[in-house]
Amino acid sequence: MSAAESALLPETLPIIDLGALGTEAGDAAIARQLDAAFGGIGFAYFANTPVTAAQQAAIFAASRRFHALPEAEKRAIDMNGFHRGYMAPKTSVIATSSVARVTKPNYSESFMFMHEVPPEDPRFGLPLQGPNQWPEPLPDFRAEVLAYQAAMEDFCRRLLRPIALALNLPGDYLLPWFEKPTTFLRLLHYPPQPPDSADDEFGSAPHTDYGFITVLVQDMSGGLEVRRADGVWLKATPIPGSFVVNVGDMLARWTNGRWQSTPHRVKNLSGGDRYSCPYFFDMDMGSEVACLPSCTDAANPPRHPPVLYGDYLLERLNKNYAYRQEA
């Protein structure tokens, strides 16, 4: 990339106000901003969302209570084969990074919750379709997590309309892929890293997300960085009450590269603990992802063959998480 082209790239992530989400004019305006942001750097701040400051504060409080538990009580719900439970520090290595050769595990710990799959559900027992786990010492934790999950799923479903409009599709076009969405809520804790930590030591090594969109709420510690097309890393400086939202691999693939799944990383050099709560909203595991009709023509043929989202997801999880390699 030339110096002139680099000079045209953003210096900060764009901010999209969602105060008018759900209105005809509001969704149209949001759609235009989404296309500019996601087609440019693949990231944006979302402000004035339907998820309230109180709901955000509640999930942070739940996360801090969980991570304050003794290690033995957290390890009692270690990750199960359905990708749900506690992930201890240094148990994931981003082997699939597209911008770095990652050899060291992430210096972070997390609790992973996914969509509920009760035993009577026909999907029960299929890959990633099983029970969540809950810490016995925190009896209110389950209700707090479920309340936040419900708010986030409702919010993301409301985003499907402006996303479709941004891609020159009917507003209801994407709904069939999300009748039973695959969702992840990850409550992350990043211990402080030494200021002189090695360049290849990360709380979360450079990576892209696997699915449709990621909606992240972060505390005020900082540490998240986003890679521009020219290789420059931009700081995603926390903005109180806002979310940082990014395109995942499946959405980039769906749009034939019109939108970018952008590498990002975390280094917690704040001197204190960092907490973040990313919510991943993805299509049904059995959904086929093929180039959207509005994103291809004779001059721009599909760049990728169709793929089942579940196959892509499992391939990434199997490479990046130690517990899956030991099974």
Automatic annotation (TrEMBL):
Coiled coil (UniProt feature): none
PROSITE patterns assigned: FE2OG_OXY
Keywords, ordered alphabetically: Dioxygenase, Iron, Metal-binding, Oxidoreductase
MF-aspect GO terms: dioxygenase activity
Sequence ranges assigned to domain Fe2OG dioxygenase in this UniProt record: 181-283
Superkingdom, taxonomy of origin: Bacteria
Family statement drawn from the similarity comment of this UniProt entry: Belongs to the iron/ascorbate-dependent oxidoreductase family.
Stored PANTHER family: FI07970P-RELATED, OXIDOREDUCTASE, 2OG-FE II OXYGENASE FAMILY PROTEIN
Descriptive protein name: Isopenicillin N synthase family dioxygenase
Organism this protein belongs to: Falsiroseomonas tokyonensis
